[in-house]
C-alpha cells in the first residue's frame, strides 16, 4: 500500500448515493444532455428512503431544473426528506446567491453544493465559506482534459469554455479554506467506465487537506476502493447504483471496513 492510501485509511470515507430530480422525477442525464434523459420508477422520497434503509448516512441531491434555469426549487422536499429519512443531505443546482445558501441550510441540508458560480466568481464563494463555515459548502468542479493535457472547467452545461484551469482554482479554494471538493471528469460521467483515479491522485497531492469526493464513472465496489486509495474521502454513486449493478449495503460495508 502506498503512503497516500495509508493516509486515507486513517480518515473516514463516505459514500453519497445520488438522486437527480427533474420535474419531480428521478432521472439521469446522458453526459449532462437534457435531451437525453432516463427516468426511473421510484419517487425521489421512495429512493432516498431505500438508501437510508440500506445504511446510507448521506444523500447527494441535485435540482436539475434549477441547474438549468437558476433558483433552487427543492427546499420543501429537503425538509420532508430529512424529517422522513434522517439522512444528511448535500444538495445543489442553481445556487446563485448567499440567500440561496441560507435558505437551503435552513431547510435542513447539511451542505450546499456550488458549481458553475464557483468557477465564475470564486471570491464570492470563498466569502460564503467564511460566513457559513467550511463544513457547509461543497464546491463541485466538472473538468475536461484538453488536447494539451490541461484540465479545464467548462460551464453552461459543459458547452462554454470558462478559461479557468482546474489546478489553479483548486489551489485557490484550498488556500481560502475550502474543505469539501467534488470533482467530476466529464468524460466519465454516466459512462460506467470507472473513475479517473489518476486525476484524483494528482489533486490529492496538489491539495492534500481537501476532503475530495470522486464523481463520475463508478461501476462497482472495486471502483469505490480505488477512489479511496487514490486519496478521495468519499464517492458519489449515481448510475451504477440506481441501475442495481451493486448493492448499497455491500458497498457501505466494504467502504467502512477498509
TrEMBL record:
<dbReference type="GO" id="GO:0003949">
    <property type="term" value="F:1-(5-phosphoribosyl)-5-[(5-phosphoribosylamino)methylideneamino]imidazole-4-carboxamide isomerase activity"/>
</dbReference>
<keyword id="KW-0368">Histidine biosynthesis</keyword>
<dbReference type="GO" id="GO:0000105">
    <property type="term" value="P:L-histidine biosynthetic process"/>
</dbReference>
<dbReference type="InterPro" id="IPR013785">
    <property type="entry name" value="Aldolase_TIM"/>
</dbReference>
<dbReference type="InterPro" id="IPR006063">
    <property type="entry name" value="HisA_bact_arch"/>
</dbReference>
<keyword id="KW-0963">Cytoplasm</keyword>
<keyword id="KW-0028">Amino-acid biosynthesis</keyword>
<comment type="similarity">
    <text>Belongs to the HisA/HisF family.</text>
</comment>
<dbReference type="InterPro" id="IPR023016">
    <property type="entry name" value="HisA/PriA"/>
</dbReference>
<protein>
    <recommendedName>
        <fullName>1-(5-phosphoribosyl)-5-[(5-phosphoribosylamino)methylideneamino] imidazole-4-carboxamide isomerase</fullName>
        <ecNumber>5.3.1.16</ecNumber>
    </recommendedName>
</protein>
<dbReference type="GO" id="GO:0005737">
    <property type="term" value="C:cytoplasm"/>
</dbReference>
<dbReference type="Pfam" id="PF00977">
    <property type="entry name" value="His_biosynth"/>
</dbReference>
<dbReference type="InterPro" id="IPR011060">
    <property type="entry name" value="RibuloseP-bd_barrel"/>
</dbReference>
<keyword id="KW-0413">Isomerase</keyword>
<dbReference type="InterPro" id="IPR006062">
    <property type="entry name" value="His_biosynth"/>
</dbReference>
<feature type="active site" description="Proton acceptor">
    <location>
        <position position="20"/>
    </location>
</feature>
<comment type="pathway">
    <text>Amino-acid biosynthesis; L-histidine biosynthesis; L-histidine from 5-phospho-alpha-D-ribose 1-diphosphate: step 4/9.</text>
</comment>
<feature type="active site" description="Proton donor">
    <location>
        <position position="142"/>
    </location>
</feature>
<dbReference type="InterPro" id="IPR044524">
    <property type="entry name" value="Isoase_HisA-like"/>
</dbReference>
<dbReference type="GO" id="GO:0000162">
    <property type="term" value="P:L-tryptophan biosynthetic process"/>
</dbReference>
